[in-house]
Amino acid sequence: MNTPAPMVVNCVAYDRAGRRVAEIHELSAISDVLAAGDRFVWIGLHEPDAALLDTLQQEFGLHDLAIEDAHNAHQRPKIETYGDSLFVVVQTAQLVAGAIAFGETHVFMGANYLVTVRHGTSLSYAGARRSAEQSPELLGLGPSYALYAVLDFVVDNLMPIVDAYRAELRALEGDIFDAQWKRDSIRRLYEMQRELMTLRLALAPLQDILSQMVRLYPALVRDETRVYFRDVFDHVSRLNEAVNAMREMLGAAMTVSLSLVTVRQNEVVKRLAGWAALLAAPTLIASWYGMNFRHMPELDAPWAYPVMIGVTVAICSGLFVALRRARWL
Question: Which pLDDT score, from 0 to 100, does residue 4 have?
Answer without folding.
Answer: 45
